[in-house]
Amino acid sequence: MPISGLYAVTPQCADTAVLLDKVRQALEGGAQLVQYRDKSNDVALRHEQASELLALCREFGVALIINDDLRLASLVGADGVHLGREDSSLREARLILGPGKIVGVSCYNDLQQAIAAQQGGADYVAFGSFFASPTKPAAIPAPLELLRLARHELSVPLVAIGGITLDNAGLLIAAGADALAVISAVFDSPDIRAAASGFTELFTKPTVH
Fold it and tell me: Quick check: is 101 catalytic?
């Protein structure tokens, strides 16, 4: 499954039916990847939601990536895991999930960390926050130039994250982002399907890297 296009990251939502409806709308709008991100300590709820989301993503032929929880990714048979700075190691993730799964790594604003992640077998690297993020207001800022440098140094797909909206997304794609990880601009929209479609359309327009 390619790492490109709109990478929809789920909002915190304790109501599984509501969450599934939101994600279905994003998929109908063209989301190419879904990341399940839930920071609660409700193990049963997380397992339920991840399992249900996996079935939904299968319906659309889209990969489900689990944020920060290698055990959950393994338990439900998700398509991969996304690792942050404080999470499981890349090597551990690959050993547990196997060679066929997707392992993505947050590299924040650090190109050298991204180079090391690629050498360690990461399937994609994520940079950001490129813009002020309502989800992570204290996130490390990353400059657009980082994407341009990474585009020359790396062969793995580049994911941009942080405060991305329809107004600024084109800048990231033009700078070399293969995928855009978005939460608020999709899931806080009154029309999730239309918002997702708007991001999806940006990837069909020619850009100059």
Answer: no
